[in-house]
Request: fold
Amino acid sequence: MFQIRREHVDALSERVYRDFEDRLVEHLTRTNPERVAKMEESEVRAAIKAGVEKAATYQIFLQTNVAGFVQLQFEEGNDFDVDSAHPWAKPVLTDPELDESQKIGYLRDYVEAQRSGPGEEDEARAIAPAEEEPEDEVAEDAQETYAEADDGNAGPDG
Reply:
């Protein structure tokens, strides 16, 4: 009978991590060439490892989300999550009602909204973890959406 020993699992895990790290090094080199150019490859890999570990403290484990977290570190600073210049980061990362994909999505949206500049009220409202809208506002939004989709028809029978 074939048995998988712990060392086999560990070797596989190391291989999966190394492949992930290799892909992330390539990605960061393309997306953040100025920062990566100032670093030795071993420093990039160490930054990735630190980012992976920090992401885990916020319950972020999926490779795509971990990569997003590390990308944010390269763009906004290694400690963007606690930096007073980014007061929006910590509440999103520690919100127990958000899953890890939502956390990364909100963080990316906040960064994009900041880059867009002031006056992006609708976008900022759309990306913020929202309070529930009062019933009448939800109903009005639904009616407007239905009216737009209806294109003047009286109802489903036409």
In short: Confidence is low (pLDDT under 50) at residues 120-128, 130-158. The CA atoms of residues 29 and 37 lie 8 Å apart. Residues 6-130 form one domain. The two ends are 67 Å apart (CA to CA).
